[in-house]
Amino acid sequence: MNENIKSEMQKHQQNQRLNAAELGYLWAQYLGDTLYVCVLGYFLSVVKDAEIKELLKKAHQISQTHVDELTELFILEKIPIPIGFGKQDVNKGVPALFDDIFMAIYVNEMAIGGMKKYARALSAVRRQDIYDHLSRCVKESDSLLEDSNHVILRKSMLMRPPVIPYPVKVNFVDEKTFISPFFSQMHPLTSLEVTAIQEIVNTNVLGKTLMLAFSQVATTQKLRSYFFDGVKLASKQIKHFTELLSEADLPSPRLLDAYVTNSTISPFSDKLMM
Hints:
Ferritin, 2 domains, single chain
């Protein structure tokens, strides 16, 4: 956008209240980034790999900057600062709960989630200053995703998405059963379906690993049981969707359970883990 036009818009909107979408997205971002500051701060206190440490520093700085910017905005708008997460929710003086590789994969998934969230928010904002903020967030997530991809690939730990044969001719769907929920035989997976399935598996693999670790360190039996129920649910989802990939002779994302250490001391508060 032309800088003169942008300046005029900002001047025109300086007394404009945040709309519902802007307020909701910024509130959620504040909670998310205060959580990331805690998690990444703990990771930085135990990480050993120098390359992964630099990646964590970058991710931590991005989240901390977001928290500072949003705090300033809430004060300016006379909006109560949300109760997020802070020093009381993290204990940096305990042994590592995860292997270094898992920390890099966590940043990778965090960047992917961030890009989707910020891009969705951009479509609903109207104030130029909020648009500029979220646009920067998209660029930061993009940079973080690229960096984390490179780190993980160099360590040979990131499985590429499944590769399928190139089509040799253009085909048209001529059977209603292709899109019917009641078909008796599953059609061959399309490339977009393969992508969606892998994303679902990746999300559940990360969630399962986190809940497995949390079930190991939670302070009460009730919480430990709750997290382990989550492990079983994620395992069920992983099994179902990897079977779909297997039936199509496609590889499945690898599990990350082995990257949980044997530590039984929680680095996080029960509130943060929940």
